Amino acid sequence: MLFLMSLVVFAIVYLIPGDPIDAMLGQDAEHSAREALRHELGLDQPLWRQYVSWLARVAQGDLGRSIRAQQPVRDLIVEKLPATLLLTTTAAVIALLIAFPAGIVAAVKRNTVVDLLAMVGALLGVSIPSFWSGIMLIMIFALTLGWLPAIGYASLTTDPVAALRYLVLPALTLGSVMAGSVTRQVRAQLLQELGRDYVRTARSKGLREAGVVVRHALRNSLIPAVTVLGVQFSVLLGGAVITEQIFAWPGVGQLAVNAIVNRDYPVLQGVILTIALLVTLVNLAVDALYVVLDPRLRLS
Amino acid sequence: MSSSTPASASPERRHRALGRLARSRLALVGLAIVGLTALVGVVAPLVVTADPVAMDFGALLKGPSGAHLLGTDQFGRDVLARLVWGARLSVSIGAVAVALALVVGVPIGALSGYAGGAIDNVLMRCMDALLAFPALLLALGLVAIMGPGSTSTTLAIGIVYTPGVARLTRGVVLAERPQEYVQAARALGQRDRWVLARHIMPNCVSALLVQASVNFANAMVIEAGLSFLGIGTPPPTPSWGLMLNEARAFMTSARHVAIAPGVAISLAVLGWNLLGDGLRDALDPRLTD
Asked: Can you tell me the distance from the alpha carbon of A55 to that of A11, in angstroms, rounded to the nearest whole number?
């Protein structure tokens, strides 16, 4: 699996048209200089050789050098990744804080105005793309009301208050899609569980409704909701590319977009590989979480 | 996804599913929105006479007026005309990309599920490798390979949604293969290809329809997203994402430029999502109450 992923990433750069030497030296460079660089980079080797040596370097954490910044790609990613992780985790937390209460209330108060409002809100969340909700949030909260800064970034360690103020709008923008889809998922699953026999038994035992919902039904509906979390994290990291662009947020997404614009392909390769690895790790964590949530899985 | 007998594709069942779809008001709203965007896309040149790329430096960033119903942008281009032509682009890229994912993904999934063994393993590992990348990021990388433009955007989105379609098809085929009617058909000496096409595949249709409509919504978002990032449809072609990207520079001076394309894309995506929900409820009786 990891092997295939690495092939995809390698292919992305190999297949990009244009000679990387042109990008580095310019088209007017002398032939001997071009050939020297080609040899130095191993680009005169057979394809499988290039792949194997690339893979060996990647395994040691060497992602190559940026053509533009003349810096190791790893350093660039290490520098930018914290901002992206801060943005995505905050977005995820906001999304869950909205989605779980909204989904539960919608399921319990089914077919009421509350349910309708929650579902319309969730549907809008899912349907409004981040590149528009971001612009709207900036217009309303930064330009009209002046409550928050429009774009920018501050480090959490040097100025925590400013950092949080900068974080609010991008995190809301990125989290809204996830909030919508998790709300829908929680509601649907909870409704399904609330219709089951064990819930009727719990109710007929005289348990309080809140206990029935939270202790019995919710726990069983968590498993499918957790499945979505793995997928959602992948969507969040993809969405971060756009959100970072809107809010001038200095993360790996912006790094990737700039790499495409500047034809700085080692950087693009590095970012895509890093994100794919992160997604894989999160999916493994989600698998582990299943077992915690569902004791039935421990036996098999 | 659907019931275990081929009867799920019977006219009576289909009739009932259509009935359920028609009774769902939200699904009908979705269908209306989807139909409207498609219609606008198809008849764009007849509806709007203004040229979407014609610049007018005498009327830059003007608000809505009689001459320009939705105002003009920073080059004095008519926003309504660009919006309507943008619908054509968005709908056609979405449609071709979704069709592409189906044409490639369904055979891969069917073969994988029916053949099993090593073929299944290899095909599915390849699909999983693609699924490990966030959709937008994979599309980004693919467009970087093929160079910006509508064709490469369409191809990239099609490739991004292929693994999902293949996985879904494989799941249904795997569920149907051990069923008695499949065994019976094979025992009667029918060829594998015939069993697969005639008996098993009809059971995939409802699941694929739902998936296709959700994919359509996502494809439109990715197309607009890539254009928004400046690596999808190149200017001056009217694309909703590109319009929003350009509008960012005028958030304080001319807000109307950012509102129109945003409403358009959100509404179109909402339409496909509603239709997807409606189809799911109508086609999957287990989920209806």
From this structure: 12
Chain-centroid distance, C-alpha A83: 12
Show residues of chain A in contact with B130, CB under 8 Å.
8
Which residue intervals of chain B are DSSP H helices? 11-23, 25-47, 79-115, 117-131, 135-146, 150-176, 180-187, 192-194, 205-228, 240-247, 256-283
Best of A14, A111, A124, A127 to mutate (most B CBs within 10 Å, chain B)? A127
Residues of B in contact with A276 (CB under 8 A): 132-133
Alpha carbon distance A238, A219 (integer Å): 29
Determine the distance from the C-alpha atom of residue B111 to the mean position of all C-alpha atoms in its chain, rounded to a whole number. 24
Q: Give the number of other CB atoms < 10 A from CB of residue B189.
A: 6
Contacts of A190 in chain B (CB under 8 A): none
**Where do the H-state alpha helices sit in B48-78?**
none
The SS3 assignment for A72 reads strand
Q: What predicted TM-score, i.e. pTM, was given to this entire model?
A: 0.85
Q: Which of B117, B130, B169 is nearest to A1 (CA)?
A: B130
Q: How far is A267 from chain B (nearest CA, A)?
A: 12
DSSP code of residue B72? B
| Tens-binned pLDDT, residue by residue, of chain B (289 aa) | 344 444 445 667 667 777 777 667 778 888 999 888 888 888 877 777 777 777 777 776 677 776 777 777 777 788 788 888 888 889 999 999 999 999 999 999 999 988 888 999 899 888 888 888 889 989 988 888 888 888 999 999 999 999 999 999 998 888 888 888 888 888 888 888 888 888 888 888 888 888 899 899 999 999 999 999 988 888 888 888 888 888 888 877 778 888 888 999 999 999 998 898 888 877 765 544 3
CA–CA separation, B258 vs A199, rounded Å? 49
Q: How far apart are CA A170 and CA A151, in angstroms?
A: 9
Write out chain B residues lying below 8 Å of A8, CB-based: 129-130, 133
Q: Name the residue with tokens 């990715």.
A: B222
B217 Cα distance to chain centroid:
5
Which chain A residues are closer than 8 Å to B142 by Cβ? 12
3-class SS of residue A65: strand
Of B130, B144, B258, the CB nearest to A268: B144
ipTM (interface predicted TM): 0.83
Single-letter residue type at A128:
I
Four-residue CA torsion sign, A122, A126, A128, A131 = positive
B244 at the A interface (CB within 8 A)? yes
**CA of A260: which chain B residue's CA is closest?**
B144
Chain A within 8 Å of B182 (Cβ-Cβ)? no
Name the minimum distance, in Å, from the CA of B117 to any CA of chain A.
17
